[in-house]
Each structure stands twice: as C-alpha cells, then as structure tokens.
Design a protein that fits this description.
Helix content is about 0%, strand content about 60%. By secondary structure, the protein is mostly beta strands. The chain is globular, with a radius of gyration of 13 Å.
C-alpha cells in the first residue's frame, strides 16, 4: 500500500464532514485546512464499497469529527482511511478527489 497524497506535501487536512453509507456502498469525506473551518478544500469520494471494516480507537463518541491523518491505497482498489479516533478499511471500485 502507498500513501495517497492530497494537496501540497506540507499541508495537513482535517476531516470536517463525512457521509459513510455502507448499505449503499459509498463514502463522501470533506476535508478542510483547519478543524474549525467550514470551508471545504477537497472532497474524497469512494463508490461501490465492499469488505468495509471500521475500527474505533476510543470507545467514547464525541460531537466533533477528528483530524484527517492518512489515506493509503493499492492498485487493486483496497484503501485504509485513518483518523485519530477510527480507521476504515475497504475495497472501492471508484475513487475521486475533487479540489474546491
């Protein structure tokens, strides 16, 4: 698996919104340049998901979304999306990244 780079190497992005629908097989994640900003810098879209596994690192459920820490993938459509409180591993047939 290899890192999927988003934006310039020096930039860090925060998860400011996420819609995970396992039943319909998609993830839409909005990334911003700060955790307090509502301005979306990038939108990640994964479609046709299978083999979704979610692991929470902290049992408490907070009212805010955690920071975006990493996204890795391979050439076969396997991805691991990691934040500081959870990790989602899945296979996706379609992946796109839109700059806002």
């Amino acid at each position: 698996m290899k890192d999927i780079k988003i934006g310039a190497a020096s930039n860090a992005f925060w998860l400011i919104g996420m819609n995970l629908d396992v039943a319909n097989g998609y993830i839409v994640a909005s990334l911003g340049e700060s955790p307090d900003s509502e301005k979306v810098a990038y939108i990640l879209f994964f479609d046709e998901l299978v083999d979704v596994e979610i692991v929470y690192f902290d049992e408490s459920v907070s009212d805010y979304l955690s920071s975006f820490l990493g996204l890795v993938g391979d050439d076969c459509g396997k991805y691991v999306f990691t934040t500081d409180t959870f990790e989602i591993s899945f296979n996706a047939q379609k992946f796109s990244l839109e700059e806002k």
